[in-house]
Amino acid sequence: MNTPEKIFGTVSADAFVGRGPELARLIAHASDSGVLDCHAAPDAGSSELLRQVYDHFYRTASGIVPFYFSLRRGEAAADAGRRWVREFVTQAAAFDRRIPDLIAAKPEIRSLVEFVSDHHRSWVEAAVSLIESDAPIESLLAVPFRAAANGVKSFVLIDEFECAGDGELAEALRRTFADSDVPSVFCFARRFRPAKSSAARLHIDLHPREDAGELIGSYARERHVSLSDETRDLAVLQLGGRPVYLKGIVDAAAARDASLSSFANFAAIYTDELFGISIGRKIDRELDGIAGDPELEKEIFDELCLTHDNGSAHKTEWQMRLGITAAECDALLSLLHEREFITRASGRVFFAVSDKVLVDYLHARRELETSGKTRARVVAETLSENFGRSQKLLARVYRRDAAIGLREILTTFAGQRVAAVSIDFAKFDVELKGRADDEQLAKVAATPDRVSLPTIFFSVNAADIYPSIGRVADVERTAIAFGASETGDAVAWLAAEFDSKFAASLDLTEYWLDRLEMAALASEFKNYRLWLVTREGFDEAAIQALAERNALGSSYRQIELLRMEMGLSERRTEVLPEQFEITIPMGADSEIVAASFAEDVAERLGFSHRAINQIKTALVEACINASEHSLSPERKIHLTFTPLRDRLEITVRNRGLRLKDRQPAGDAKEGQRRGWGLELIAKLSDSVEILPTDDGTAIKITKLLS
């Protein structure tokens, strides 16, 4: 019979886009041995990915029998073992006879003994007898090996492995398949920490915007739902590129025979789903599964709302308000952290504010349950809010994408001497404006009039240091960079990009100079320089204002020239690296929290166990040094983790004494016990850099991904 398009998959292979490398990696593992661990972001589509792998092997009939098995939270190991045997035998029989409908039919397992081919019959009969004889869990899980002894090569795909926790079933699965000849995949939430893990790993993150847009487009074509480009982009932004939600919205539109051709259409369907199946009830089920009790689920919901309102809460506050034991609270928070409803760090609970869908769910449900308004009114008001912000969401992204990337440019400053006409609009206006491109380039190369750039060590979005500027400018259009001037003095550059249809006027220029100067004064920068960038440059009065404050002004054309002169790409082809920042208190062994966080980041990058241990030890050492020798007035350590394609960079910062200002330790023996210093850190990492700071110490530790 003909093989259907979908067996375990919920979408056809043609509609499953954006996971080419991950799909290829999983398919290739079928020819290997042992366990491949898949660390998956919530709602990133990992279950569908495994299902597509299953369908691939079923369709190709390559001789490898795929086996998909999803674990269930709370299921006893013995029950899971018996279900394992039933489903393995059923799927093998369906593959053998090429009857995929057999899987959904779930026949009585004894009936399959006579149904399968003769060469399968002996191992199938033995498997059936295992269930009937109440065999131990290891014997039940070993059924794929019995099949292999009879020439049946299988590929085991285990989904939602975190549901087994660290209990008997998880241990038995690891023992059974570790280093075995039967290849297997264990897929679990990326924050889940298995007691044992495999060296072979695959990370499944959320789709980037482009891939997510292609994915919802393919879903819409398959379901014959009209989807405009604008609504596609809005859906990707609002739903965070999550395949589960993207498909849910398209399915909901198809069920209503509605289109997704306008913002109003999307807002209406999205709002319905917040109170409906693909979003509201899905999150309800997840909270129900975590709580295990309706009353506790309601209390957890209230705590999530409160933590969202306040930004964070202490673990003990959750425990006290929920009225549960410390152990119960720890287990509950672990599940919420694992599912990424929250983030746990240093005894505090932080809400996932970047999850727009979760924020909308909390707001909608709270209004429905506590406002006293009718359901119709709550739905109507939620719809109005969702529609009203649509254009703002896209406008923000358009402005961000169009930004020149000041922070990226600043980070490339390394003491170069560049042509003054490339960065100072006063000189560009006189010498280059209106000239042909080749004349401009020739002048830039030949001019002896040069400006020395600072050596920048690191940069941040200005709003990270001076939040007030975030209220008047998009985060990506302002930046503060820290470095050293040509003379070696510490210096900060404060930069802003702003819009002006024509050459910027005096009033507009002074407005932005004032904003940056306020940021410098509020941050107590002693030595700083201001840099403004706008499309058409500045008029004469504005140029004079820039000169009076020793500030620089540049046009977009100058930025292009500056990029070419410094060997940068003409346009931004990559976004700035993702960064993770945490702050821990000094003492109380809080460096263990930092090491745990570092382990998470390093695992996602694919570092080996040995390298991860070296990273953790180096970081712990740096934290101990900061804690014991800095005399920090605030008693805090600020950590920044920057995962890059070929390395992990960790910056450890603290206020207090600078490294060069510290006195030698008086008791050498005491100093040997904790905090062995830079020598040990250097041995454990690939490079250690002391960054210049006005106060305290900043150390950048780099570990290469070999």
Kindly list the characteristics that best describe this protein.
single chain; Arc Repressor Mutant, subunit A; 4 domains; 16% strand; alpha/beta; 5-stranded mixed β-sheet; Rossmann fold; 31 helices
Folded structure, characterized:
With 706 residues, this protein is an alpha/beta fold. It has four domains: 20-204, Rossmann fold (3-Layer(aba) Sandwich); 279-370, Winged helix-like DNA-binding domain superfamily/Winged helix DNA-binding domain (Arc Repressor Mutant, subunit A, Orthogonal Bundle); 403-565, no CATH class; 580-704, Heat Shock Protein 90 (2-Layer Sandwich), CATH 3.30.565.10. It has 31 helices and 20 strands. It has a five-stranded parallel β-sheet with strand order 2-3-4-1-5, sandwiched between helices. Helix 3 packs antiparallel against helix 6 (118-132) and helix 10 (209-223) runs parallel beside helix 12 (243-255). It is globular, with a radius of gyration of 30 Å. The two termini are 49 Å apart. 39% of the residues are buried. Residues 571-576 and 663-675 have low confidence and may be disordered.
DSSP strand content: 15-25%
Helix content range of the residues, please? 40-55%
Question: If helices are DSSP runs of H or I spanning 4 or more residues, what is the number of helices?
Answer: 31
Q: What's the overall geometry?
A: globular
Strand order of the largest sheet: 2-3-4-1-5
Mean pLDDT, rounded to whole units? 89
Cα distance, first to last residue? 49 Å
Radius of gyration from CA coordinates: 30 Å
Category from helices, strands and their pairing: alpha/beta
Which fold name fills CATH's third level, the topology of the largest domain?
Answer: Rossmann fold
Q: Which CATH C-level class of the largest domain is it?
A: Alpha Beta
Number of discrete domains:
4
- Stretches where pLDDT is under 50 for at least 5 consecutive residues are 571-576, 663-675
Q: Could you tell me the number of beta strands?
A: 20
Q: What CATH architecture of the largest domain do you see?
A: 3-Layer(aba) Sandwich
**Main sheet attributes: strand count, strand direction, barrel closure:** 5 strands, parallel
